[in-house]
Amino acid sequence: MSRIDDKYRSSKEYLLVYSELINAARYRGTVTYQEMAQVLGLPLSGSHMANQIGKVLGAISEDEHALGRPMLSAMAVRVTGIPGDGFYTMARDLGRLTSDDKTEQRRFWEEQSQAVYETWARPLHEPSAGERTRE
Length: 135
Fold this sequence. Notes:
The chain is mostly helical. The chain is about 55% helix and about 5% strand.
């Protein structure tokens, strides 16, 4: 059962954040909440920004979970380089995390990040036989 309002699914905001997260994953990076706020035209801080981004990330997390993929929202981080508490709350809600222990949470996030990187990795270009003969 979804805990996120469906109005965020397939919205322009959802797709913009989804795109930012995939790009971050493909390049083995992260995207800050402030960068997502900028893409969405939201204030760069405050409860309104946090609320809106949290709802979009929640919908993305639920959808990725339903598709059997790791939590793409692991790419979303604070300026300190780690995710906010909402990431761990969503992981517990999805049954992916059972601990409140900070060390276990960090380990879970690192594992999810690695799984996301592997899922969305950019394919390496293998030269075709014709390309190899032209060298």
